[in-house]
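Example record

One chain of 118 residues, shown exactly as stored in the release files.
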Amino acid sequence: MRKTWFATVLLLGLALAHHGWSSYDASREFQTTGIITEVTFEFPHVTIWIEVPPTGLMMQRKWYVVLAPPSRMEARGLPSGSLKVGARVTVVGYPHRTEREEMRAERIIVDGKTVELR
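Predicted structure tokens for this chain:
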């Protein structure tokens, strides 16, 4: 009984810590291209930081990009080690509703390969 209670509390904590799609504004899909500066290939989601160079009136910007869980990344052809610091990637996704630098990726284009993440 005690183990069941502990497991329930642990799963609830993980669920609350998990990023849900409702945190992102699905009405504002956008695409950006940048250079990967950091990669974290861990549960619950793979994440990258990309630096987007300035264009026109837009200043240089960094994005914290939330990708799919590691198992889905691997199943879709992007295993650990496929996203490298210094690589140029394009991501299509949605901005976080409150975190200015965060986006959730719907797809990523790396080495000319488009990978759907959802």
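Notes: Confidence is low (pLDDT under 50) at residues 9-16.
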